[in-house]
Amino acid sequence: MDSEEKKKWLEAGRIGKEAREYGISLAKEGTPLLDIARAIEEKIHSLGAKTAFPPNLSVNSVAAHYTPRFGDDTRLKKGDILKIDVGASVDGFLSDTAATVVVGGEENALCRAARDALESGIKQVVPGKPIDNISREIERTIRDAGFSPISNLGGHGIGKYDLHEAGFIPNIGGHSGATVRKEGVIAIEPFSTTGNGYVVDSSEVQIYAFKEDKPVRSRLGRKILEFVKKEYKELPFAKRWIVEKFGRLSELEFKQLVASGSLMEFNVLKEESGGMVAQFEHSVLIDGDEVIVTTR
Ligand code: CO
Questions:
Q1: Which of 109, 120, 139, 233 is exposed most, by the fewest CB atoms within 10 A?
Q2: Catalytic (active site) residue 189
Q3: Are residues 123 and 237 in the same domain?
Q4: Span 112-159, pLDDT tens digits
Q5: What pTM was estimated for this model as a whole?
Q6: Are 218 and 250 in contact (CB under 8 A)?
Q7: Are residues 193 and 233 in the same domain?
Q8: How many domains does one find in the chain?
């Protein structure tokens, strides 16, 4: 791997880690989710990077893809299971990392299962070896702890300006015939749940990404599209960021921008049976025989 590129992957990892830990330190009973999201964003910017995607702050049976909405007044409650999933972009070189906290309490068995699954899964990251080794290890660790892995969420490749590159890493065994890449970055992200282990789209969307240039009728819609293309390329962004910049009316443009095929949506994902969900995630850089966890 090119040494300049490697430096940027590592830098993105270091900043992602710092942002994650900072977010965790703010996760106290009574704290508004919106304050935590903004603080994480500011932290990433203050460290000289951009967000790779909006901080995902998903609570309890919400597994992923929730970032506070414009004017969000949700506050953390004691016992909430909060997943903080963040990432940094250094010139398009990205990190993706997550941790889970029990608000106002100690780490519970559910969180420990996902944390242990991440560590045991990472040990199976061997260039050229089956991805299924990672998946099986994750599944075994979570089931041994008495919980279910979420079967339709998993790790993934990470490319430059590409958060979900090809190379899905399932959290259950027997579903990947591919081998671990010999160069590049991957994210490992086990989810453990007290439920059945399956997430579904909810109707709510707070995160979008630019998809394709399509004709857009409204002037404001075109302005938004130009802005997100320039500012985020194809990386995910928060609806809240757009409303803060372009005003409340911009909220009405999203439907059209999605319908025209200009933007894609990331629906808030919920555990189907209403189970509690925990998640831990690291980004891992592979360069020949070298395997480096960039977000540790
Ligand atoms: Co990820």
A1: 109
A2: yes
A3: no
A4: 999 999 999 999 999 999 999 999 999 999 999 999 999 999 999 999
A5: 0.97
A6: no
A7: no
A8: 2
